[in-house]
């Protein structure tokens, strides 16, 4: 009976006393995000932005992107480094007081093992290193622990040091993993890959305490961290897939930050005095790809015509508001060697020009093609916009929307006519994009160069291959920048893709979050402050 | 004396033949369940192979090299002949080994055991509400056919039947959570309790009672009530409409007239004469509604950030996580088979003609 009364009382409390406004604990940051994409915490395998952001805050790399200037790097696990005169060897001095959560000391052997491991496992991330000449077979000589806290990187060509630091040393492929622990957890020669799907074994300001797929990820401050202690003790990332639900939770104060809001919600929230809407430019471009194996798209004038079928500013002010800024160059703003905003986006909606280009190419009567798109909210309106304008110049685009996994599969398999996708680079350097979007080492089907979007689009240019290589090894920086700028102009005219937007990362947070430090590559959880 | 002995023989024979027929029925049922399960296994397997999704890319990422891709194809056994893959699949499925989920990196069975209680709790709560309100409403509408009561029930049911659940969910949240503050936020449990609750059954309402934490119970209850009510609304509309039409059929029968002529009150006629006769049909309707709810309500689970079965299955499908998709599809199939079997058994209990 007593229980029954308590039960009744609890019901009454639940129904009547639920507060209209709640607050999150002061030492905890509660973030709502769609975390469906998480499938592993193995730095060698992580391939998407949500887990990458978390791993950056849990696992330190050799160096880190400078929080204040994303084109520079600052020391992290490496306290200093030296470059040989011929630019073929980089020697890193590592911090000496770092300890893994298991209690094992962190040594350069762990680092060499971790980086060699990425190459041996051969997941997509291995491309980050193979692109600069590292190989699974040669890894033991290329990545060497020369002392307990000294580490050498031997390069196959004199790549610009800044680029190697940005592309590899600050990337998750240079995370230091607990080799002793992982070898103890090894199953069938997987180098601890299975263990790392649900655990972490590295050193960083936070460590993973809980991951329930589709529910929550909880990070706790790492008490034994060698660097500065994080200001926020705990970060809870709650899975909320629905943007409207994220907005309601934020307005009610049940969460501190919402990460996946749409243009309309962000517009409304920007008017709320208790909430701040913050944006940062990502090095991610939203673009339209054409299959150059189709006769019509093999003519550059047809591809160029599509650049005049888009009302960039109208889209930027509506569906892409807070989500992207117009950008037609292959190199994102903020990267070394990028064209400035106006030179990098010279196009506007011009149906007559598009029609003239098509006529010149022999397609004055138009043609029809399929357009494959994914499931992100802004994708369909953008596709419909292009479809409508294309129809005005005689091109019949049939839109087919599909799951992203299916879309990637079609694009990689060269089984498409046109498609809309985004591509992000983790390197703030012109080479980061050009090396994939303009270089194609071998266009033959047998070569299977499916990690190159150029290969997927069956587009090949010996001229671009050569010039990009020359630009990469140009020692005179001013000349190098000029070479990159010319490459971008030429790529805009003759390249395989129509770039539309450089995407923004936009978060809405309550004003109780007094510092939200981030840039194109990272959110610095450890520096977040709550008032 | 002789007659008496014959009687005994007859009744002994009767008992034996009843047992035989029961054993026969059980055997037939077992065979039909086995065939259905096998068909289900074949169907899920081939659907999995026909979908234009690439499980290899789902594991390796879009950026992987062709060599890594080919290695993974061999590792997953996708290079083997289809019949060989199918045999392995059947063997593993019979032991509930669906392999490792790509979505979570854990065994699919472990994932299902984690997400299913969330859906089970929500569906059961919704079913209790939906049945508890739907049946009386349906009876009421039938008993008051074409009056304002009937019309009101019809309109209420029609809205429940046709309003998109997604829209109802958001509307409910805006009104009851953001506006009035009567219900809790989306999510199964508050962040402050995330660490506190000792999970034993996976049903948070039950777990909070078992550990005597009434504060957690209140929190969990405040969060489940709205999604459960919205699901219940749909179920109620369906059950109510069906109850009404079953009752109308019974109320038109002659035995009802006879009962009235004998002097039975209206209430007696409805509840003790007519209603027991529709029980059998209602069991099927309720079992089917329950099965649909247990399958997981994707939209409701999405709006209310409910980490349930429906969302797990949908996410797995979109991520080309075929192990999870096949495991979940099989579980859904088994739920339907089990509930069908249960309603068959109920038929035998309630309907003397089937004995």
Brief digest:
The complex is a heterodimer of chains A (531) and B (355). Chain A has 531 residues and is an alpha+beta fold.
Can you walk through the features of this model?
The complex is a heterodimer of chains A (531) and B (355). With 531 residues, chain A is of the alpha+beta class. Chain A has helices at 2-16, 49-58, 108-121, 126-130, 139-142, 161-169, 179-184, 195-198, 243-252, 263-269, 300-307, 312-317, 351-360, 379-392, 404-412, 430-437, 453-456, 462-473, 477-494, and strands at residues 28-33, 63-65, 73-75, 78-83, 89-94, 143-147, 150-154, 206-212, 216-221, 234-239, 257-258, 275-290, 324-326, 368-373, 396-401, 418-424, 497-510, 513-515, 518-519, 522-523, 529-530. Chain A folds into 3 domains: 8-58 and 183-279 and 509-530, D-Maltodextrin-Binding Protein, domain 2, CATH 3.40.190; 63-169, Dipeptide-binding Protein, Domain 1 (Dipeptide-binding Protein, domain 1, Alpha-Beta Complex); 281-504, Dipeptide-binding Protein, domain 3. In chain A, strands 1, 8, 9, 10, 11, 12, 13, 14, 15, 16 and 17 form an 11-stranded mixed beta sheet that branches. Chain A has a 4-stranded antiparallel beta sheet with strand order 4-5-7-6. Chain A is globular and about 70 Å long. In chain A, 51% of the residues are buried. The model of chain A is unreliable at 13-20 (pLDDT under 50). Chain B has 355 residues and is an all-alpha fold. The two termini of chain B are 32 Å apart. Chains A and B meet through helix 1, helix 4, strand 10, helix 9 and helix 15 of A and helix 2, helix 3, helix 5, helix 7 and helix 9 of B.
């Amino acid at each position: 009976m007593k229980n029954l009364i308590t039960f009744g009382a609890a019901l009454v409390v639940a129904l009547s006393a639920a507060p209209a406004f709640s607050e999150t604990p002061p030492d905890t940051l509660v973030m709502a995000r769609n975390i469906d994409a998480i499938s592993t915490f193995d730095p060698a395998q992580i391939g998407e932005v949500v887990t990458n952001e978390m791993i950056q805050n849990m696992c330190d790399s050799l160096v880190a992107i400078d929080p204040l200037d994303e084109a520079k790097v600052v020391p992290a696990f490496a306290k200093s480094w030296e470059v040989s005169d011929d630019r073929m060897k980089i020697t890193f001095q590592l911090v000496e007081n770092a300890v893994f959560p298991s209690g094992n000391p962190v040594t350069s052997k762990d680092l060499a093992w971790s980086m060699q491991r990425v190459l041996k496992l051969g997941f997509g991330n291995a491309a980050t290193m193979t692109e600069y000449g590292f190989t699974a077979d040669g890894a033991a000589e290329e990545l060497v622990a020369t002392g307990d806290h000294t580490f050498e990187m031997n390069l196959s060509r004199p790549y610009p040091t800044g680029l190697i630091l940005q592309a590899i040393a600050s990337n998750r492929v240079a995370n230091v993993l607990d080799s002793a622990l992982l070898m103890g957890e090894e199953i069938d020669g997987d180098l601890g890959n299975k263990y790392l799907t649900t655990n972490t074994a590295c050193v960083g300001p936070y460590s993973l305490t809980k991951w329930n797929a589709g529910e929550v990820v909880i990070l706790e401050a790492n008490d034994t961290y060698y660097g500065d202690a994080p200001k926020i003790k705990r970060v809870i990332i709650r899975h909320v897939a629905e943007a409207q639900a994220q907005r309601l939770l934020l307005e009610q104060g049940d969460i501190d930050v919402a990460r996946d809001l749409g243009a309309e919600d962000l517009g409304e929230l920007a008017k709320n005095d208790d909430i701040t809407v913050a944006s940062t430019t990502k090095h991610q471009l939203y673009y339209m790809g054409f299959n150059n194996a189709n006769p019509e798209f093999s003519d550059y004038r047809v591809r160029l015509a599509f650049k005049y079928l888009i009302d960039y500013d109208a889209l930027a002010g509506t569906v892409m508001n807070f989500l992207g800024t117009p950008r037609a160059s292959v190199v994102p703003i903020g990267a070394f060697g990028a064209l400035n905003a106006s030179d990098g986006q010279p196009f506007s909606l011009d149906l007559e020009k598009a029609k003239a280009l098509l006529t010149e190419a022999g397609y004055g009567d138009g043609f029809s093609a399929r357009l494959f798109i994914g499931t992100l909210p802004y994708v369909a309106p953008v596709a419909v916009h292009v479809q409508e304008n294309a129809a005005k110049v005689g091109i019949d685009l049939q839109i087919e929307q599909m799951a992203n996994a299916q879309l990637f599969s079609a694009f990689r398999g060269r089984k498409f006519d046109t498609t809309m996708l985004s591509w992000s680079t983790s390197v703030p350097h012109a080479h980061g994009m050009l090396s994939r979007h303009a270089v194609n080492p071998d266009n033959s089907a047998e070569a299977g160069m499916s990690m190159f979007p150029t290969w997927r689009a069956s587009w090949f240019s010996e001229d671009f291959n050569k010039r990009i290589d020359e630009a990469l090894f140009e020692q005179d920086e001013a000349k190098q920048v000029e070479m990159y700028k010319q490459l971008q102009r030429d790529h805009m005219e003759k390249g395989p893709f129509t770039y539309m937007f450089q995407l923004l990362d936009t978060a809405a947070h309550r004003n109780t979050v007094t510092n939200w430090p981030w840039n194109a590559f990272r959110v610095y959880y450890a520096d977040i402050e709550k008032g | 004396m002789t007659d008496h002995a014959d009687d005994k023989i007859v009744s002994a024979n009767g008992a034996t033949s009843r047992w035989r027929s029961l054993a026969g029925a059980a055997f037939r049922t077992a065979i039909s369940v086995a065939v259905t399960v096998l068909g289900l296994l074949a169907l899920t397997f081939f659907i999995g192979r026909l979908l234009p999704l690439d499980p290899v890319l789902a594991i390796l990422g879009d950026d992987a090299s062709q060599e890594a891709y080919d290695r993974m194809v061999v590792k997953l056994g996708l290079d083997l002949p289809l019949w060989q893959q199918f045999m392995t699949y059947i063997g593993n499925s019979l032991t509930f080994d669906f392999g490792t989920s790509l979505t979570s990196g854990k065994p699919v069975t472990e994932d299902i055991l984690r997400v299913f209680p969330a859906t089970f709790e929500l569906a059961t709560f919704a079913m209790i509400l939906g049945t508890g309100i739907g049946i009386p409403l349906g009876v009421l509408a039938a008993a008051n056919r074409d009056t304002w009561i009937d019309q009101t029930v019809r309109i209420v049911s029609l809205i429940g039947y046709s309003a998109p659940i997604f829209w109802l969910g958001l509307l409910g949240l805006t009104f009851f959570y953001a506006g009035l503050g009567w219900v809790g936020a989306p999510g199964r449990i508050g962040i402050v309790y995330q660490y506190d609750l000792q999970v034993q059954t996976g049903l948070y309402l039950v777990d909070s009672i078992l550990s005597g934490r009434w504060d957690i119970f209140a929190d969990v209850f405040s969060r489940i009530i709205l999604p459960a009510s919205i699901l219940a609304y749909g179920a109620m509309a369906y059950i109510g409409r069906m109850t009404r039409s079953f009752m109308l059929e019974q109320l038109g029968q002659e035995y009802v007239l006879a009962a009235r002529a004998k002097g039975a009150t209206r209430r007696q006629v409805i509840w003790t004469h007519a209603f027991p006769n529709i029980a059998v049909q209602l069991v099927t309707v309720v079992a089917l509604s329950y099965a649909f709810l247990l399958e997981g309500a994707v939209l409701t689970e999405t709006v209310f950030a409910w980490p349930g079965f429906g969302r797990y299955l949908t996410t797995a499908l979109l991520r080309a996580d075929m192990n999870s998709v096949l495991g979940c599809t099989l579980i859904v199939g088994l739920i339907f088979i089990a509930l069908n079997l249960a309603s068959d058994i109920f038929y035998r209990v309630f309907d003397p003609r089937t004995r």
